[in-house]
């Protein structure tokens, strides 16, 4: 009998070129987990509509993100890789779950508060409802584990709350998922403002390293990253947030522990340290960038992966959606 593996679901919005924060906090863990789990990784393009995009650019970024998933090491033969808008069940389940989610709990979401402050000209209902779409993404697939960065912890908690609330009324319809948040690298900070999270949609490109930045840009951004006046490579997130963030990046890129990094740079200045951080990022990103460029030139292959992934995801998602429709009292289509 085939062994039944627990299931993973996760995704990234094509809201910009993904950063080393997205790579360290999410994708690198997905790659590590892909053999142990049946994994479903989504390009959550519907989520990206919560802010304004240039349509052709959004399409390009979604395709590029699929190429990056593969270039980072996600094997399309082992994992289901697909685009959220290709599987209508995500939007359909969102409507149902909206009716089981309270305005009060959505208005407490940190991301909603931050994004509505940042996009005060466009505080749309989609931004408010973002966590319900995310809950639908996860619950549709009867997911066991959701590997995410720290910033998504609150959204995973509301996903669990919505799922449990629904199950309490209708029986065990949804599996209640657990979060998988890495111990190191769950919150990579902005390079120039280390009190804020590194984000791909940041207006200042010097705050993040994009996974597709050319080598000279990566080295320059590392050189310019904010540190402090102590000239001591020591991990102390409260008093040395900039240096501690660079240490975390270096540790994640090299696979070294933080104490080992402290020892390695004992007595060395920030110049040497930043050079080493930049080089460690380049070493990881160079092969990813090469593969990404090759895949982007092969539209037929990316289309084939997208179509195959959507077909497999659709089959799983429909099963859950039909169960939900039946439970809430909708007539099955004759
Ligand atoms: N700085 C970060 N450090 C560690 N993990 C991070 N993630 C995001 N930023 C960091 C994780 O990456 C995954 C994808 O996130 P998303 O695209 O769905 O949305 P997000 O969390 O809002 O990421 P961004 O980069 O900040 O996007 P924008 O700028 O569009 O809002 C998630 O697992 C997230 O935790």
Blueprint of the fold:
Elements: E1 7-12, H1 20-33, E2 38-43, H2 45-48, H3 55-71, E3 80-83, H4 89-98, H5 103-107, H6 110-118, H7 125-140, E4 145-147, H8 153-170, E5 178-180, H9 215-224, H10 241-254, H11 258-264, H12 270-296, H13 299-328
Parallel strand pairs: 1-2, 2-3, 4-5
Helix pairs in contact: 3-12, 4-7, 4-13, 7-8, 9-12, 10-12
Shape estimate: globular
Number of helical stretches of at least 4 residues:
13
Total strands: the figure is: 5
Q: How do the strands of the widest beta sheet line up side by side?
A: 1-2-3
If you had to describe this structure to a student in words, what would you say it looks like?
The protein is mainly α. Helix content is 54%, strand content 7%. The strands form 2 sheets. Strands 1-2-3 form a 3-stranded parallel sheet. The chain has a two-stranded parallel sheet with strand order 4-5. The relative contact order is 0.15. The structure holds adenosine-5'-tetraphosphate.
In short:
This protein has 334 residues and is mainly alpha-helical. It has 13 helices and five strands.
Q: What are the salient characteristics of this protein?
A:
334 residues; mainly alpha; three-stranded parallel beta sheet; two-stranded parallel sheet; binds adenosine-5'-tetraphosphate
